[in-house]
């Protein structure tokens, strides 16, 4: 029984044959092209592709940045989401933004290849300072070596770069969890520590890790007290933001100093090398 109270004759229903449907018109070339493009987008677009689509307007950019900031934890969550290529592109874009006077050759000298950057997107904990030791353990091939050091004084396997002395002091404090009697953490920053004191420490101690600001690190390298021939990784303290929502890669002065340090010949020639190579890790 149908909803309106009428019943179709059974005989008519059985005997009636459906009218043949008209053959569908073949899709136009333009339609086919659109469908293929849509299918390719659905299949091929990754989370990284979506993340790389930068917002266009100033308001959209500000909203995008604010969504990635966790001021309670003091971090920019965006860096945890970026793979190696996105990080390389981010540093390049920031360098062009802040140092517009650089020539194409100079920009190339400051470029860090994606192949030199470790992909850390698999790390599922916030990039907070307390998680740094655990973070390093996850992305080091043999974590037990984090507690070791070369027998040659002042020759670290890990170098951590940050933007300010107080932040460097905080990082050095938490990294003492990875310190041992024969593997000290060197403090290479201007906060209450003179260059001469840093040099003396490096010359007298076996050093597994060194934490500091770019300028002080360069000073002790130029002095010869900091040896980098056994260096295996450089960690950039990128996720941390201050009360003004700024990270080490968000300010012209600190970004330029970090990029300049990363571009030193002692490092750049070893990026991505299978033997004796240095990897760059953004925390």
Major sheet: arrangement of strands: 4-5-3-6-7
User: How many DSSP H or I helices?
Assistant: 13
Number of strands: 7
| CA distance, first residue to last residue | 69 Å
Structural domain count: 1
pLDDT averaged over residues = 86
The helix content, as a percent range, equals 40-55%
How much of the sequence lies in strands comes to 5-15%
CATH topology: Rossmann fold
Low-pLDDT sequence parts = 1-18
Features:
283 residues; alpha/beta; Rossmann fold; 5-stranded parallel β-sheet; two-stranded antiparallel sheet; globular
Write the layout of secondary structure elements.
Blueprint: H1 10-15, H2 29-44, H3 47-52, H4 58-68, E1 69-70, E2 75-76, H5 78-81, H6 84-98, H7 104-110, H8 132-138, E3 158-161, H9 165-174, E4 184-188, H10 195-204, E5 207-212, H11 214-223, E6 233-236, H12 252-262, H13 265-268, E7 279-282
Parallel strand pairs: 3-5, 3-6, 4-5, 6-7
Antiparallel strand pairs: 1-2
Helix pairs in contact: 6-12, 11-12
Describe the protein.
With 283 residues, the chain is of the alpha/beta class. It is built from 13 helices and seven strands. It has helices spanning 10-15, 29-44, 47-52, 58-68, 78-81, 84-98, 104-110, 132-138, 165-174, 195-204, 214-223, 252-262, 265-268; strands at residues 69-70, 75-76, 158-161, 184-188, 207-212, 233-236, 279-282. The strands form two sheets. Strands 4-5-3-6-7 form a five-stranded parallel sheet. Strands 1-2 form a two-stranded antiparallel sheet. The relative contact order is 0.13.
């Amino acid at each position: 029984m149908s909803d309106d109270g009428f019943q179709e004759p059974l005989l008519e229903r059985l005997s009636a044959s459906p009218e043949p449907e008209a053959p569908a018109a073949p899709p136009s070339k333009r339609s086919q092209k659109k469908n293929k493009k849509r299918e390719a987008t659905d299949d091929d677009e990754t989370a990284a592709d979506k993340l790389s689509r930068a917002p266009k307007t100033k308001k959209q950019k500000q909203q995008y940045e604010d969504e990635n900031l966790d001021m309670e934890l003091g971090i920019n969550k965006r860096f945890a989401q970026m793979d190696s290529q996105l990080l390389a592109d981010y540093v390049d874009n920031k360098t062009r933004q802040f140092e517009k006077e650089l020539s194409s050759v100079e920009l190339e000298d400051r470029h860090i290849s994606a192949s030199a950057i470790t992909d850390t997107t698999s790390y599922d904990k916030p990039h907070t300072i307390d998680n740094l030791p655990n973070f390093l353990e996850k992305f080091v091939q043999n974590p037990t070596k984090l507690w070791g050091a070369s027998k040659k004084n002042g020759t670290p396997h890990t170098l951590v770069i940050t933007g300010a002395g107080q932040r460097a002091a905080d990082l050095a404090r938490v990294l003492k969890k990875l310190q041992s009697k024969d593997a000290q953490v060197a403090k290479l920053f201007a906060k209450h520590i003179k260059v001469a004191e840093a040099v003396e420490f490096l010359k007298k101690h076996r050093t597994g890790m060194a934490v500091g600001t770019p300028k002080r690190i360069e000073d002790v390298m130029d002095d010869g007290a900091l040896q980098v021939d056994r260096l295996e990784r450089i960690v950039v303290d990128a996720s941390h933001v201050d009360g003004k929502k700024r990270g080490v890669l968000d300010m012209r002065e600190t970004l330029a100093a970090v990029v300049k340090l990363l571009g030193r010949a002692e490092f750049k020639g070893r990026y991505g090398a299978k033997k004796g190579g240095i990897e760059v890790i953004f925390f």
